[in-house]
Amino acid sequence: MSARRIAIIATAVVGIAALVGAVAYFMPIFKVQNFSIRGQHNTSAEDIQSATHISIGANLMRIDAPSAAHSVAQLPWVDKATVTREFPNTVDVEVQERTAALYVKRDDGEHLIDEKGKPFIIDAPPEGTVEITETNEDDQKLFADAISVLKSLDDTSRAAVARIKAPSQYEFSLITHDDREIYWGAPENNHDKAVATKTVLQREGAYWNVSAPGLVTTR
């Protein structure tokens, strides 16, 4: 086959493909009939589908996937979202939800705080979520520092903590489920303080000070 004939055939194929694409784009050959929604635990599939603003019967070729993903990501529990087409008739939505790391009680309810220290919804805290107290402002840095303290603890120590007191960004205290207090101080040297906390949790005593982890005191 000559090079000229190959070129003619290739041009024809490209032209046909472009024509088919144009027809599919402007005429609803591929219609939205289904939604595949994955990754949600605290957000209903119905709310996610509604947030895409994509209707059943819409032209699948003409949906605005980035805009739909952005809209879904505005839902309180949703941290990230992706929206893609699955031919011939499905919109695929995958979400990554926030994790409630803390909660704070306010007059209007319990405000959940994500792992970045951002309050994101008023809702019942999931089991195991630690309460933060003695703070009247939604200070994202203070919340993030409190979370860094909790993350420095091993699983056993972390499970013992019921709430964390934070009257200022330099004064943190861990309160255990049996009402013992471990004064942490500023959110620094967290690893060493976590090691000291693990030790004192195995001892008797209602109050411990691990703010200087090399010189732990009690009273």
Automatic annotation (TrEMBL):
Q: Which UniProt keywords apply?
A: Cell cycle, Cell division, Cell membrane, Membrane, Transmembrane, Transmembrane helix
What transmembrane ranges does the database entry give?
A: 6-30
One biological process term in Gene Ontology: cell division
Task: Please tell me whether the keyword Amino-acid biosynthesis is annotated for this protein.
Answer: no
User: Would I find rRNA-binding among this entry's keywords?
Assistant: no
Task: Give GO cellular component annotations, separated by semicolons.
Answer: plasma membrane
Q: Which domain of life is it from?
A: Bacteria
Domain named POTRA is located at 30-98
Listed name of the protein: POTRA domain protein, FtsQ-type
